């Protein structure tokens, strides 16, 4: 290779290296999803990567996916799942104080506390809704998105068994529809789950969510408080 071309190649490689390094520093989650092994995660198959080489993680993710598929009648979102066994790992891949984090339609990050079937199903439910909505995802208010994820995952912390799933009075729960989600804490989940469980039941079941998705994608208004 002529000397000038060699220096050009070196310059390009250096530029790319700086760019990749910048992404890793500024957005570690993106870098970790792109290269899980670079962050010490082992591939378990099926797009699942974990800090600890344990097939139980893969079975847990499969079971969580089955909850989502049972609600929607199938799954359209198929993303990478990154699971950490230590807090140091979770911070390294861009996690914070949450138990899990869904990255649009691309990936799911699970902390040590979130590495269970219910939390995984909750986050996979977010991915599924995002995937099915496409650009219309911004039309769904956060309270509905979170309440639906609780319902899909069948989280017993926020839902009771039986016809009335609410763990808080329904009239009290309705205040969540007029509240900025960023202003609520843990008590937002039982309220959102209560309202969404009523919304789905009153409209005949999970098929109402599919109809809602279709309406939103068609440009129709569904929510008064997006």
Descriptive notes:
InterPro entries: TAT_signal (IPR006311). This is Peptidase MA superfamily protein. It comes from Actinoplanes octamycinicus. By secondary structure, the protein is an alpha/beta fold. It folds into 2 domains: 29-130, Zincin-like; 140-226, no CATH class. It contains 9 helices and 5 strands, in the order ααββαβαββααααα. It has helices at residues 3-26, 28-34, 55-72, 87-92, 117-133, 142-153, 170-173, 188-202, 207-217, and strands at 42-45, 48-50, 80-83, 100-103, 107-110. It has a 5-stranded mixed β-sheet, sandwiched between helices. The protein starts with a helix and ends in a 9-residue tail after the last helix.
Features of the shown structure:
single chain; 226 residues; alpha/beta; Zincin-like; 2 domains; five-stranded mixed sheet; 9 helices
In whole angstroms, how far apart are the ends? 59 Å
Radius of gyration: 20 Å
The CATH topology of the largest domain corresponds to: Zincin-like
Number of domains: 2
What is the level 1 CATH name of the largest domain?
Alpha Beta
**Approximate strand percentage:** 5-15%
What's the gist of this structure?
The chain has nine helices and five strands, in the order ααββαβαββααααα.
Task: Break the fold down into its secondary structure elements and pairings.
Layout: H1 3-26, H2 28-34, E1 42-45, E2 48-50, H3 55-72, E3 80-83, H4 87-92, E4 100-103, E5 107-110, H5 117-133, H6 142-153, H7 170-173, H8 188-202, H9 207-217
Parallel strand pairs: 2-3, 3-5
Antiparallel strand pairs: 1-2, 4-5
Helix pairs in contact: 1-2, 3-5, 5-6, 6-8
């Amino acid at each position: 290779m002529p000397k000038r071309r060699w220096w050009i190649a070196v310059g390009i490689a250096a530029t790319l290296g700086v760019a990749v390094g910048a992404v890793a520093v500024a957005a570690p989650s993106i870098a970790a999803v792109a290269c899980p092994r670079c962050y010490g995660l082992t591939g378990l198959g099926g797009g699942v990567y974990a800090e600890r080489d344990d097939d139980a993680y893969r079975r847990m993710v499969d079971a969580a996916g089955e909850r989502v598929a049972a609600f929607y009648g199938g799954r359209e979102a198929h993303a990478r799942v990154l699971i950490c066994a230590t807090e140091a790992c979770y911070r390294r891949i861009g996690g914070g104080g949450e138990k899990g984090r869904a990255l649009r339609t691309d990936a799911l990050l699970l902390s040590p506390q979130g590495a269970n079937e219910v939390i995984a199903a909750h986050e996979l439910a977010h991915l599924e809704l995002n995937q099915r909505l496409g650009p219309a995802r911004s039309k769904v208010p956060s309270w509905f998105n979170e309440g639906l994820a609780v319902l899909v995952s069948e989280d017993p912390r926020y839902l009771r068994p039986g016809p009335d799933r609410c763990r808080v009075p329904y009239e009290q729960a309705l205040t969540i529809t007029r509240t900025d989600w960023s202003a609520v804490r843990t008590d937002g989940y039982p309220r959102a789950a209560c309202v969404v469980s009523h919304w789905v039941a009153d409209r005949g079941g999970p098929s109402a969510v599919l109809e809602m998705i279709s309406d939103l994608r068609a440009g129709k208004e569904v929510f008064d408080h997006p």
